[in-house]
Design goal:
The structure is a homodimer.
Chain A (H helix, E strand, L loop, with lengths): L1 H22 L3 H16 L3 H16 L4 H7 L3 H16 L7 E6 L5 E8 L2 E6 L4 H12 L3 E5 L5 H17 L7 E3 L7 H7 L6 E5 L2 H10 L12 E5 L5 H13 L8 E7 L3 H14 L3 E4 L1 H7 L6 E4 L13 E7 L2 H11 L4 E5 L3 H10 L4 E6 L16 E3 L7 E3 L5 E12 L3
Parallel strand pairs in A: 3-4, 3-6, 4-5, 7-8, 7-12, 8-11, 9-10, 9-11, 12-13
Antiparallel strand pairs in A: 1-2, 2-16, 14-15
Helix pairs in contact in A: 2-5, 2-7, 3-7, 5-6, 6-7, 10-11
Chain lengths: ~425, ~425
């Protein structure tokens, strides 16, 4: 245990030292390093696949289900996909060094802000080994060092991938120590990692809601809490029928296991008789289970083709991550807004309406990372929003909100150019 | 104690509720409220001054020194000065509602970020009662509610000023509860305030270094730590003599009690024989005590006109807040950079040089909120940097760095306008 703690301190120090060099690394060297990573992934030999097979074997022996084993699996096609993602990151503009808010003051002093890396990013995550490469690439491109702590179930795959990344960046002349991987799987070490505020400037947890909450409550450095979305779509009195159906269907069915999927459908009482049966029918074809309040139940009536149940209090404010949705009929936009304020997680919220003023009111009132008019909440995503890639989706209000791309992994410093200026 | 805790919870809830209304308040109403505050300050009668006299009387009885009593004092001229500051805040552009990074995606979806208030700001501060008005005005203009906790030594003045502010904003039709003042002076309540993360989104401590550190280590919500500046000015080998003297003099003497004042002068060994005696002479006229390393001592020699002492290890990395400076001779830019990295607090650092490449190198390498070439560190200030006003100077890297104006008291939400868009 002491050895493991010492290892973590040593890695923290190494990352801090590397971060200073990283802050000054040219965009050319960074992009060469990223292309090296991509090539190494494409040409990866048996070492990566056999390391992965050890994790797969352990998972099978532990009786893991097919979904878990599938998340763990690496094969040549997946490595090629990871390589393509790294090349995409290389192709993004370098955020470091960008100047903004530059102005020359009346006294001739030239004042501006210049973007700089945050320093050292910590990442604690579960299962999928591609996160090791994804987060390394995003932190590296934004000039940060990173300390990675993956789940024990993928320890051999993650170790092999981290070594591949470290070798690839060193080959490009970048500091190998900019990417640190904690090789011990001792769970108590997470607590130690969360206390290392002298070495880690920002902690990014990736995993389930309980895990993210645990990190948020225990980390001594700033944490990006996010990835938990209790998302509502409100079908307003003046909603277009076809749009209602298309948006509700897409938000719930397109990819139900992710944080920007619909959890609760709110329907205005005047729109419900018109829209709700049509939405329910489409959802039923996709196998969606509906947990309905009494008014929604009575509108839908007894039907063998629908999978409908009465909702309980727990169904409001629940992130289902499955083909399940709660459904409530409301009498006004205000009631919908109150429901969203009470039960939403501040992630993504949508209104479907043809009424201009009510659309604007929804945009103004809803306090969430992303607010949509006549569009599916599924669009909350760094790639979709034009950030190129994302390291997380923040539901914090401080620093960055919503999808976090490269720029959101930076800070800035004020630069001031004078010619002997003094203040009087 | 229970009553005081209940009071704090009630004020937290009231601030949270008011913050929702604040987020949607028009710029016109906010500016009218700010003008009301200014008028009330200008027309303030005996209630404010007699409340202040009670604090002054208590201060005199407690044997406070002249400097402390002067910080505490209110008089008509100071109230007029506070009113002018509030009018300046009213005149600043409203940051709330500003849209940025707006783009239309290839699929026609209109995506952008819109600035919104953070929510509820907590402010814990010591002595000067004008902070009650300053911070209220800045939080109010940026659409936030605020919970104020001033020092016990100014409790009567602060209470009277907070009431004046609350009445003035209510008269303008803004929520009175947007400004909350903790009236109990029980010191243990600070701990409770720092735990109220459900009601307070950001905590801003204003006071000495130990106080700011205490808040940073104990607050459960994000904290702006700042206001502590161990600032270096490095006189390079190729420094201009006159500029060196003017900048070192201004940085140390203009206002020695503030965080952007010079603490340590570093001088290149080739520039020291030329520049150091001249700087020392000017400093001596202003009464500056110099704590010098051995090489600086030997260059300055024994002199009755200078106030020179040998430096001890403690003099590096100390914020003097007085007419005292430590002085060290270095052999290279690199040695200066290492010294700054080791002892600086990441606030404001300056180089004086005529060499272009070394100026650029200093800008690149120094990791601080503000980095200066050929200018005094005294310029680190929201007003000087064109932000109009500042609520604090952050030495954090997350969220905001350096002077924090109105924009730095905001977050944003993503707004997405579609016409039935679904993700495929």
């Amino acid at each position: 245990m002491t050895t493991a703690t010492d290892e973590m301190t040593a890695k923290g120090q190494a990352a801090r030292t590397a971060s200073r060099e990283m802050a000054r690394l040219s965009g050319d060297v960074k992009n060469r390093a990223l292309r090296n990573i991509a090539e190494a992934l494409e040409g990866a030999g048996d070492d990566i696949l056999s390391a992965n097979e050890r994790d797969m074997q352990a998972g099978r022996e532990a009786g893991q289900g097919d979904a878990t084993l599938d998340r763990l699996l690496l094969n040549p096609a997946r490595l090629t996909g990871m390589a393509a993602d790294v090349r995409s990151v290389a192709a993004l503009p370098d955020p470091v060094g960008e100047s903004f808010d530059v102005r020359t003051l009346a006294n001739g002093l030239q004042v501006g802000r210049r973007r700089v890396p945050l320093g050292v990013i910590g990442a604690v995550y579960e299962s999928r080994p591609n996160i090791t490469v994804d987060i390394s690439a995003l932190c590296f491109k934004s000039g940060n060092a990173v300390i990675l702590r993956g789940g024990s179930e993928a320890i051999h795959s993650n170790t092999a991938l981290a070594n591949l990344v470290r070798d690839a960046i060193a080959d490009a002349g970048a500091p190998r120590d900019a990417v640190q991987f904690i090789s011990s799987t001792d769970r108590s070490l997470v607590q130690r990692l969360l206390s290392m505020k002298e070495y880690i400037d920002l902690m990014i947890p990736r995993g389930g809601a309980d895990f993210v909450r645990f990190v948020g409550e225990n980390a001594q450095m700033p944490v990006i809490t996010g990835g938990v979305g209790v998302c509502h779509t409100y079908v307003d009195r003046d909603a277009d029928l076809d749009r209602s159906v298309a948006i509700a269907y897409n938000a719930k069915v397109d990819r139900p296991t992710v944080c920007n999927a619909l959890d609760t459908l709110l329907v205005h009482s005047e729109a419900a008789p018109r829209c709700l049966p049509a939405i329910a029918q489409e959802w039923a074809r996709a196998g969606v289970e509906m947990r309905c309040d009494m008014r929604a139940l009575s509108i839908l009536g007894p039907s063998e083709s629908l999978n409908v149940k009465p909702a309980t209090e727990e169904d409001w404010g629940t992130e289902f991550l499955a083909l399940t949705a709660s459904v409530k009929v409301v009498d006004s936009l205000e009631e919908a807004l109150e429901h969203i304020e009470r039960y939403g997680s501040g992630h993504s919220e949508a209104i479907v309406t043809e009424d201009y003023s009510r659309a604007m009111q929804f945009l103004d009132y809803v306090d969430a990372a992303a607010v949509f008019v006549n569009a599916s909440t599924r669009f909350t995503d760094g790639g979709q929003f034009g950030l190129g890639a994302e390291v997380a989706i923040s539901t914090n209000k401080m620093h960055a909100r919503g999808p976090m791309g490269l720029r959101e992994l930076t800070s800035y410093k004020w630069t001031v150019l004078g010619n002997g200026h003094v203040r009087s």
